[in-house]
């Protein structure tokens, strides 16, 4: 499980805006193992969707420099030209389910044809074979096979989301990036989709990067959690550690702000707001809101290893294994 | 506690027509709902999209006309109000819409957004200014002087929602209806807004009806919960009883689907009811949840509407399982 599938090092992405250059993704690095699920957690504007776009090279026109290295199954992706990337990496290597993509299905084409399209266009499969494969994937994500012949408007939101998921899976990619796949859906529908993702992960051994702001739902799939704040990765840990003993003060505050159904403690808000990325502070970006800030926070902290699978970008953890006094 | 809002046998149906005249049927958005809200009480109305919770809320505000049944506010029936009386009623019932980003006019500044309801109610200029400032203070949109001239797009999501709350409160309502007040906001801001609503509710002794699809947020912000499914009220109870010991199979399913952050979640499949909520154009006979219910009893649940059964202190559940 631990051989590296996706290795990201020093990834940066800039946007040119009227206010100047904005670094949306700042020196982000992580590794996803084969068949593993990494959750990228963060609040709006923290750069998590930009990270997905940077990995998929779906950059808006005002995107500036894309820096760093990305390796998929050992192959460097950044040197590839767009055509090679599209032909050889998209769909079979990396597939993306974009935010609200269930509303982007073509309304006048039957769902099955759309789900089979990557096979026909990218792999040159003939129609009948591609549809048969689509039917198998439909079953895997929990859609009846005869839905292949329906149009998008005949499906509920949850079913359309499953169809979009089927499309991402149909060419058996090594890794699927999901950007807020359930945020617009009802609780029961959401839980159904998370069930389907767990099944896919177990049966096909697909790797996932799940991008979300929803802490509770993220724990439904996570093997590892990467927490982003103001464009930077502030904590990276395996799920068990992150959900029970987060190390970064922001991670701790975020966990305390999540209302829990089965606990009586009152959730606590995090005072203040994230800094503007046009003019971020030089030191730790969370310092202004941090209850535990001290003199060192004026300098940007590096990531300190707290445990074998936990790295935290906070000066409090300067001495490895320092006692956590929260 | 005296009753402020009394809803009896309320149905709100919407006719569906093709080409403007061909009657295709009626969407039974709210069907035979009865509930009472006491003065100063805070309740949550919970359910999935399309269950009728927003329609119910809007009917309480006098924005939809009941197809059947009645809504009484402080003893007066809403559908009997004349135009001028309805305007007066609107001053005593505030509304926080679902989407703070779409709830204010982008071309009006904060001062003007808050002045609007006061102008409609005929409040004079000097008093308007004073009340606008007080309202901004109350929702902590400060420094007031700086915010008065800002336009909605210059505010963060949390600030926009505060503005919408200030507007809903500015006429001094006795009832406040908040429709998904935090669903569009980030986790860290959510708690701030919910705490604000709770404090204001306590201080002003407001009756607060808080509409949400997210049961994990209600424990600290409501005293009672009403659960709706497919246009019907299926269960109501004090908050702890409903969350810790739900009785209706639908409520149980809904709670079972909610995750708390826990790494163990990733290793198990959640048990969920099959299928999806029914079409409200043609809802199932009998209990509307019976096609998905693991306890459905043939010949009963698919034939007869379950009445409300008393299953505990102020705890009611509309399910045949509680018979005898």
UniProtKB/TrEMBL annotation, chain A:
GO terms for molecular function: ATP binding; ATP hydrolysis activity. One of its GO terms (cellular component) is plasma membrane. PROSITE patterns: ABC_TRANSPORTER_1 (PS00211), ABC_TRANSPORTER_2 (PS50893). SUPFAM superfamilies: P-loop containing nucleoside triphosphate hydrolases (SSF52540). It is found in: Cell inner membrane. It is a peripheral membrane protein. Its main location: membrane. GO terms for biological process: peptide transport; transmembrane transport. InterPro entries: AAA+_ATPase (IPR003593), ABC_Ni/Peptide_Import (IPR050388), ABC_transporter-like_ATP-bd (IPR003439), ABC_transporter-like_CS (IPR017871), Oligopep_ABC_C (IPR013563), P-loop_NTPase (IPR027417). Residues 6-255 form the ABC transporter domain. Keywords: ATP-binding, Cell inner membrane, Cell membrane, Membrane, Nucleotide-binding, Translocase, Transport. Belongs to the ABC transporter superfamily. This is Dipeptide/oligopeptide/nickel ABC transporter ATP-binding protein. It comes from Bisbaumannia pacifica.
From TrEMBL, chain B:
GO terms for molecular function: ATP binding; ATP hydrolysis activity. GO terms for biological process: peptide transport; transmembrane transport. Residues 265-285 are annotated as: Disordered. PROSITE patterns: ABC_TRANSPORTER_1, ABC_TRANSPORTER_2. Residues 5-255 form the ABC transporter domain. SUPFAM superfamilies: P-loop containing nucleoside triphosphate hydrolases. Pfam families: ABC_tran (PF00005), oligo_HPY (PF08352). InterPro entries: AAA+_ATPase, ABC_transp_ATP-bind, ABC_transporter-like_ATP-bd, ABC_transporter-like_CS, Oligopep_ABC_C, P-loop_NTPase. Keywords: ATP-binding, Nucleotide-binding, Transport. CDD domains: ABC_NikE_OppD_transporters (cd03257). The keyword Manganese does not apply. SMART domains: AAA. The keyword ATP-binding applies. Gene3D superfamilies: P-loop containing nucleotide triphosphate hydrolases. It comes from the Bacteria. This is Oligopeptide ABC transporter ATP-binding protein.
């Amino acid at each position: 499980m631990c051989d590296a599938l996706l290795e990201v090092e020093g990834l940066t992405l800039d946007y040119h805006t009227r206010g100047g250059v904005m670094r949306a993704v700042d020196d982000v690095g992580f590794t996803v193992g084969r068949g593993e699920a990494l959750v990228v957690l963060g609040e709006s504007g923290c750069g998590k969707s930009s990270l997905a776009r940077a990995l998929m090279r779906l950059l808006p026109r005002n995107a500036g420099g894309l820096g760093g290295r990305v390796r998929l199954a050992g192959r460097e992706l950044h040197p590839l030209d767009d055509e090679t990337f599209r032909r050889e990496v998209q769909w079979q290597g990396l597939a993306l389910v974009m935010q609200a993509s269930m509303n982007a299905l073509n309304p006048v084409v039957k769902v099955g044809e759309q789900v089979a399209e990557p096979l026909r266009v990218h792999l040159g499969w003939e129609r009948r074979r591609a549809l048969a494969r689509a039917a198998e994937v439909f079953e895997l994500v929990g859609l009846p096979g005869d839905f292949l012949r329906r149009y998008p408007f005949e499906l509920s939101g949850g079913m359309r989301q499953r169809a979009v998921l089927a499309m991402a899976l149909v060419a058996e990619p090594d890794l699927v990036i999901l950007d807020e796949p359930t945020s617009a859906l009802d609780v029961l529908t959401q839980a159904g989709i998370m069930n389907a993702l767990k099944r896919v992960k177990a049966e096909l051994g697909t790797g996932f990067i799940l991008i979300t702001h929803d802490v509770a739902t993220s724990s439904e799939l996570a093997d590892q959690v990467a927490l982003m704040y103001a464009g930077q990765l502030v904590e990276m840990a395996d799920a068990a550690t992150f959900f029970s003993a987060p190390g970064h003060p922001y991670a701790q505050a975020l966990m305390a702000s999540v209302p829990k159904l089965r606990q009586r403690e009152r959730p606590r808000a995090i005072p203040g707001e994230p800094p503007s990325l046009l003019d971020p502070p030089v030191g730790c970006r969370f310092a202004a809101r941090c209850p535990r800030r001290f003199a060192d926070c004026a300098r940007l902290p590096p990531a300190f290893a707290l445990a074998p699978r936990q790295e935290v970008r906070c000066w409090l953890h300067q001495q490895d294994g320092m006692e956590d006094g929260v | 506690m005296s009753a402020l809002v009394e809803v009896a046998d309320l149905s709100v149906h919407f006719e569906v027509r093709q080409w403007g005249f061909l009657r295709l049927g009626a969407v039974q958005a709210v069907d035979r709902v009865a509930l009472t809200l006491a003065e100063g009480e805070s309740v949550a109305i919970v359910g999935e999209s399309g269950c009728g919770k927003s329609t119910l809320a809007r009917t309480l505000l006098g924005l939809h006309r009941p197809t059947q049944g009645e809504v009484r506010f402080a003893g007066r029936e809403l559908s009997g109000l004349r135009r001028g009386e309805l305007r007066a009623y609107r001053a005593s019932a505030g509304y926080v819409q679902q989407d703070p980003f779409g709830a204010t006019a982008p071309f009006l500044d904060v001062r003007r957004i808050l002045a609007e309801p006061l102008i409609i109610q005929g409040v004079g200029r000097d008093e308007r200014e004073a009340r606008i400032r007080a309202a901004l203070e109350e929702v902590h949109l400060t420094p007031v002087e700086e915010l008065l001239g800002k336009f909605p797009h210059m505010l963060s999501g949390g600030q926009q929602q505060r503005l919408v709350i200030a507007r809903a409160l500015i006429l001094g309502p006795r009832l406040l209806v908040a429709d998904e007040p935090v669903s569009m906001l980030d986790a860290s801001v959510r708690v701030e807004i919910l705490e604000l609503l709770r404090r204001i509710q306590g201080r002003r002794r407001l009756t607060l009806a808080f509409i949400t699809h997210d049961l994990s947020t209600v424990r600290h912000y409501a005293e009672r919960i009403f659960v709706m499914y497919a246009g019907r009220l299926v269960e109501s109870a004090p908050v702890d009883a409903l969350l810790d010991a739900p009785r209706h199979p639908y409520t149980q399913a809904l709670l079972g689907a909610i995750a708390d952050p826990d790494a163990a979640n990733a290793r198990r499949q959640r048990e969920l009811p099959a299928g999806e909520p029914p079409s409200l154009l043609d809802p199932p006979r009998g209990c509307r949840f019976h096609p998905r219910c693991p306890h459905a009893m043939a010949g009963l649940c698919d034939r007869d509407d379950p009445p409300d059964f008393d299953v505990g202190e102020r705890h009611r559940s509309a399910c045949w399982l509680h018979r005898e």
